[in-house]
Amino acid sequence: xxxxxxxxxxxxxxxxxxxxxxxxxxxxxxxxxxxxxxxxxxxxxxxxxxxxxxxxxxxxxxxxxxxxxxxxxxxxxxxxxxxxxxxxxxxxxxxxxxxxxxxxxxxxxxxxxxxxxxxxxxxxxxxxxxxxxxxxxxxxxxxxxxxxxxxxxxxxxxxxxxxxxxxxxxxxxxxxxxxxxxxxxxxxxxxxxxxxxxxxxxxxxxxxxxxxxxxxxxxxxxxxxxxxxxxxxxxxxxxxxxxxxxxxxxxxxxxxxxxxxxxxxxxxxxxxxxxxxxxxxxxxxxxxxxxxxxxxxxxxxxxxxxxxxxxxxxxxxxxxxxxxxxxxxxxxxxxxxxxxxxxxxxxxxxxxxxxxxxxxxxxxxxxxxxxxxxxxxxxxxxxxxxxxxxxxxxxxxxxxxxxxxxxxxxxxxxxxxxxxxxxxxxxxxxxxxxxxxxxx
Length: 440
Ligand code: SF4
Hints:
The protein is α/β, with parallel strands linked by helices. It has 15 helices and 16 strands. The chain has helices spanning 16-20, 39-46, 117-123, 134-142, 157-164, 172-181, 199-210, 241-262, 271-277, 299-311, 329-342, 372-378, 381-384, 408-415, 425-432, and strands at 6-7, 10-11, 27-31, 34-35, 50-56, 62-68, 77-78, 126-127, 148-151, 186-192, 216-223, 267-269, 317-327, 346-354, 387-391, 419-422.
């Protein structure tokens, strides 16, 4: 049976919760008569100055506590990583779903089809709103769960129903209007599938979304990704370079217009479109504070700007080192000028090794989807030199594991080479020239 309330993971020493005698394992059941279903409820209810808190102690005893505190003062409770209970799953069958194109035997979490409004608010996960009940919509409004990140794909109701394989998908504009009216800030994305939701459909989607500005505050365009594991999936194709070029030119014109009228570029093409098209990455001002950098929109601009700063402190000479940087097909386009400049430093011998994505299929060209086994198969230890450097996006965040489960130490053991991981130009240069401390 599901226990009521939220289990305490840790109590901060010296906190209000500590003084009250709360301990790990106790459960917060109600605050001011309202049930505490998850972390969002807790944070929302905790903000009040007067709290009537019902607790179930680890030994089963029930405590009723009155607390007076400053508004917004924390009780000092940490609920650990599992504070939302069961993740809400998606109810869609999207024609472009990446999860459906996964090969078997990958990490379990890679098959999770979450579509949870709470994780959208808390972690910035994109959601479709197709599984939301009216109660949940009202909760978002009442508790001001803002900003939210919403996958729109198209505002054409019939097309959205088809693309998401869900009869409720056509309600998107009505839902967005409700959320906008409730003061929720919304970042949107469109996964673009050539011939399906681009061109005229995209014009319509953009017009609908920008009409809800400023509540809808950004719209990102991301190209569909297709792996070789598509048996039984809807027929789709990827964007060609010339189509990507037309798209980014169209985005630039739209941005000019919105900057004039609304003082925001509003619509953004993801980095993949620029790299595929060969067009220049826009300057930082065009990213308006980078609201969708986690979605691959503007990361390359941030990289290039950081590189610009780093080049100013590069020495003329460094200790001799032969180094290989491994990346994906698109990453090479960004790294080429970087490597050329690094090789101007006397003593450095840096080269790029482009890793084709044989695992997912060669239409997948981003570094973040390269697996350990592709690195293992395509890197020749005799050509790596003294050190192999990998971009941090190849590994699970905060971990040393590739998508296919191979670990960094395992790869190093197989290759018999030291491996370093860089999350940007600054770290890359610190790895290549350890004596150079980049303090700026
Ligand atoms: S919302 Fe669509 S793309 Fe996302 S997991 Fe569900 S089916 Fe896949």
